[in-house]
Amino acid sequence: MSIRNPNRQGLLPDGKRAPEIQGSWRRCIEEYKLEPGRDLRAPRLSESEIRYARDQLDSLLHSAEPVFDRLRYLGGNSGYCVLVTDASGIVLRDYIDSSRGRELADKGLSLGTVWSENLVGTNGLGTCLATGEALTVYADEHFGRELQRFTCSTAPLIAPDGDVIGALDISTYARGDKVGQGLALNLVCDTADQIEASMFRHAFARHHLLALVSSPVADPALSSALLAVNDAGWILGATSPALLLLGIAERALIVGQGLAALTGANLEDVHRAPVALPSAAGWLMRLAGHLPARNPVAASPAPTPRKPLDSPLYRVAGGDSRLQRNADICHRVMDRNISILLQGETGTGKEVWARAIHDSSARRDKPFVTLNCAAIPESLIESELFGYGAGTFTGGLKGGKTGKIEASNGGTLFLDEIGDMPLALQARLLRVLAEREITPLGQIKPVPVDLHVICATHRDLASIVEQGGFREDLYYRISGVRVALPALRERQDLHALIDLVLAGLPDGEAGEIDAQARRVLAEYHWPGNIRQLKNVLEFALCMSDGASIRLTDLPDEVFPPAPGERSAHTPSETSPMPPDRLVSLGARAPDSDERQRILSALQQHRWVVVRAAEALGISRSTLHRKIRKYGLADS
Predict the structure, then answer these.
(1) pLDDT classification of 315: cutoffs 50, 70, 90
(2) Which residues contact 431 (CB under 8 A, 6 or more apart)?
(3) Is there a contact between 318 and 250 (Cβ–Cβ < 8 Å)?
(4) Three-state DSSP class for 135?
(5) Which H or E run includes 169?
(6) Which residue, 160, 190, 171, is CA-closest to 67?
(7) At what angle do helices 494-503 and 529-543 cross, to 10 degrees?
(8) Please, what is the Cα angle at 193 between 8 and 10, to 5 degrees?
(9) 340: phi then psi, degrees, rounded to nearest 5
């Protein structure tokens, strides 16, 4: 995604085509097979189609209404026609109250028309959406004859996550030359920046917002160059103007970075006073008046910590910036009947996340019903999902059975491992999602349901769709929002999560982990993710004979294999007995000379524990425990 920058357009003298215009004409001829110079009228949608599309766009743009109020004034008093489209090029807002604007609307620049480049050829809206660039299409630069009397200056509308969600266009009759349209292009870019900043402030309202400004006395509230930062100092997002000022071409290069690494200033510094940025990029300031109650700037050097958020989603997200961003997204959509697809490795907490979405939503007082599509035989999953009437099955419940869908009416249905749902059943589920009613097996009369579905899978559904194992239409129906849950080894808050899981275990609340054991846990790759972490900590608590978990209390699986040693995941078939740790639980060592054998092995291998353990035929963790047991550390 390119960054808006009207100066890059190179408004050229007559007789020359800017590169973006040349590229568009080439696409029109070679890809779209359009004929230049013909009338290419924009098609118009029906009222119901317009209404549906506008509802989708308004849910994103509602925070920018003050900016649109100014556009309404511009369109009504300047002779311009102001249009706003969604990402498909459908005009969903128009501000054309003046007589000239009405005349332009009569020519086709009106609500509900579709201006995608492949339908209408080179035009401001369609070409802007095709390239992601702000641009002016002037007079005969338009591909179709119908538009060649107009000049259109357009800029993309960019969501807080960097996606282009639409375009903003200012059109009028072409007069003079293209150079004279520079003011219109600057105006449309500036307005698009303001809209993006409004959406950005709303999306990251629960985080620290910082503004890039030209001087330390500037008003940060007027800046569209914004950064969002979490409590730990990780950058969660940036607006297009901020990327432009910092000289960064892609959001992926900044999101997830530490603020201090990027700017040379930490969050505490910025909260105290404006900070000069390197490379003359300006100054970084806290957005005035933002979060005064949650993060007041104290007179002491450090700001007062923010109170933890009440939402179950934010509590589950912890201190990981990606999960916090996921929580922001889910909060935006969870009460809008948009299906959510959770994707992540086994054990990453998909059901916990789904429950947190439910508990954070307006449906929290209604049922949360789960169905694991991989855990139920194919012959039973249909009756589990849809239920059945009385007498439908021999041996079935006498009065029939309520299915999971009907049981979740008004609440949330969580379909885990949706990728394992049989193809025949996928068609029925698709129909239920579309019609919002079910017909139990053996019944005729449909039952209406108020349904919100959250699905989860550890598989790559897109690949399964390509292979024909999952319906494409159902995939897009259940993936209105896709949320990727990071693996445990990728989480930025791993240490805090270890403590949180430990505190949630029986007798774990007062437990501690010493530095060596914590380092091993942090370096382990955790193929089983949070589920495996819980099992490891439960084992360590059982093994611990003191107030803290030590290195010798951890199971063998978390230690990397020594050179020549088999991994814990590929045990040798010739092992004569279970690991020594297990046979010695509560038992006396069978060899009364064990202390001396261990001491001799340690001395022989110069106290290199890995080699001594290998010579003794026991694990390193077992050897560490025996060293402590026999007091050999002081020998």
Answers:
(1) confident
(2) none
(3) no
(4) strand
(5) strand 164-173
(6) 190
(7) 60
(8) 15
(9) -120, 130
Q: What angle do CA 528, 529, 530 make, to 5 degrees?
A: 120
Q: What share of the chain is helix, strand, coil (3-state, %, to 5)?
A: 45, 15, 40
Residues 522, 312: Cα–Cα separation, whole Å? 25
pLDDT for 300: 31
**Tens digits of residue pLDDT in 152-177:** 999 999 998 888 999 999 988 888 77
Structure confidence by residue, pLDDT tens digits, 599-613: 888 778 767 777 787
CB burial of 528-544 (b: ≥16 within 10 Å; e: otherwise) equals: bbbebbbebbbbbbebb
> Measured between alpha carbons, how far is 619 from 457 in angstroms, rounded to an integer?
36
pLDDT value of residue 577? 33
Residue 570's SS3 state is coil
- E strand segments, 13-134: 81-86, 91-95
Mind listing the pLDDT tens digit for each residue in 395-445? 667 678 888 999 999 999 999 999 988 888 888 888 888 888 888 888 888
Residue appearing with tokens 């459908």: 90
552, 628 Cβ separation under 8 angstroms? yes
Pick from 365, 326, 300: which is nearest to 481 by CA? 326
pLDDT value, residue 192: 94
Q: Counting beta carbons within 10 angstroms of the beta carbon of residue 301, is it exposed (0 to 12), middle (13 to 18) or buried (19 or more)?
A: exposed
Cβ atoms of 326 and 485 within 8 Å: the answer is yes
| Other CB atoms within 10 Å distance of the CB of residue 324 | 26
Alpha helices (H) in 443-506, listed in sequence order = 461-466, 472-478, 494-503
Residues 6+ apart with CB under 8 A from 143: 24, 25, 28, 34, 36, 40, 120, 121, 122, 123
pLDDT value, residue 98:
58
CB atoms within 10 A of CB 80: 24
Does residue 500 surpass a pLDDT of 50? yes
Query: How far, in Å, CA of 144 to CA of 41, rounded?
Result: 8
- For residue 331, the one-letter residue type is H
Give me the residues paired with residue 173 across strands: 150
Amino acid at 255: V
Q: Point out which residues pair with 93 in neighbouring strands.
A: 84
292 conformational bin, left if phi > 0, alpha if psi -120 to 50, beta if neither: alpha
The Cα–Cα gap between 353 and 325 comes to 13
Specify the DSSP class assigned to residue 207.
Answer: S
Number of Cβ atoms within 10 Å of the Cβ of 245? 21
Quote the Cα angle for 575-578-581, to 5°.
Answer: 130
In terms of residues, how long is the chain?
Answer: 635
HEC profile of 100-120: HHHHHHHCCCCCCEECCHHHH
Which residues 6+ apart lie within 8 Å of 216 measured at CB?
273, 274, 276, 283, 285
Show the beta-strand stretches assigned E in 206-280: 208-213, 226-229, 235-238, 275-276
Q: Is the dihedral of CA 515, 517, 523, 529 positive or negative?
A: negative
How many separate helices (H) and strands (E) can be counted in the chain? 25, 21
Tokens of residue 190, six digits = 């500036």
Amino acid residing at 260:
A
| Spatial contact of 230 and 207, defined as CB atoms under 8 Å apart | yes
201-236, pLDDT tens digit by residue?
988 888 899 999 988 888 888 899 999 998 888 898
